[in-house]
Amino acid sequence: MKDIAHFQFEAPKIIGILSDKSVPIRLQKQLDRLLKRLGPAYICLPFQVEQKYLKNVLACMRIMDIEGMIVLGSHARRIVRFISRLTKSADKAGMINAIKRRKNQFYGHYIKNGRDFYPNAIDLLISI
């Protein structure tokens, strides 16, 4: 029998969904399907966070090594003040709906809502 130390496990890359309310299961399943197309290296994780704890989200992203998050609801405007850098579209909109982490910097993006929002957000969040 082989010792477990001989096996190497690659930790999945996490894409989060940040909301102030419960994340709809339908949305989580849709994002899971999009991520499964990329292979087993990605998983989707919902985060329901009260407004008073919003400032802790970026620290949690660092600790949990989260690649990025899709931001829903009222948090889209509230989290802007904690983000390192905003894209021009996010700055103009005054809100973000995607956070991309690169090393210890957080980039806030605003992606136009529409039919292709979630595929576009996933493409952005998994890009290098």
Write the layout of secondary structure elements.
Elements: E1 13-19, H1 25-36, E2 42-48, H2 57-63, E3 66-71, H3 75-78, E4 85-86, H4 88-93, E5 98-102, E6 105-109, H5 117-126
Parallel strand pairs: 1-2, 1-3, 4-6
Antiparallel strand pairs: 3-5, 5-6
Write a brief caption for the model.
By secondary structure, this protein is an alpha/beta fold. The chain has helices at 25-36, 57-63, 75-78, 88-93, 117-126, and strands spanning 13-19, 42-48, 66-71, 85-86, 98-102, 105-109.
Descriptive report:
The protein has 128 residues and is of the alpha/beta class. It contains five helices and six strands, in the order βαβαβαβαββα. It has a six-stranded mixed β-sheet with strand order 2-1-3-5-6-4, sandwiched between helices. It has a single domain (10-126), classed as Leucine Dehydrogenase, chain A, domain 1 (Rossmann fold), CATH 3.40.50. The protein is globular. The mean pLDDT is 88.
